[in-house]
Amino acid sequence: QVQLVESGGGLVQPGGSLRLSCAASVMIYRAYTMAWYRQAPGKQRELVALITTGGSTNYADSVKGRFTISRDNAQATVYLQMNSLKPEDTALYYCNAGHQWGQGTQVTVSS
After folding, report:
1. Rounded distance, CA 68 to CA 18, Å?
2. Residue 89 DSSP label
3. How far apart are CA 6 and CA 24, in angstroms?
């Protein structure tokens, strides 16, 4: 049973914006801190941002001031708004909750 479903990736020019969505099962959504990770080719997977069940957030230094993570309790969905995108943001982005992972959505920033 798929617990996390990501969407919203794509190709965008430098300086552009994208919003990623992660739809979760209600049980998972209510129980866990939700997070976004990313993995670029040849690099380790890294934490991008997280949001606790209480709404507290934390961000990687590389995305602070550009990315915003948020939760929609009515939809059991977590969002990652990404602004001022840079080529180095190019990666496969994964949604995470506890031991559950989504399938990943590709973000490519290129002119």
Report:
1. 11
2. G
3. 9
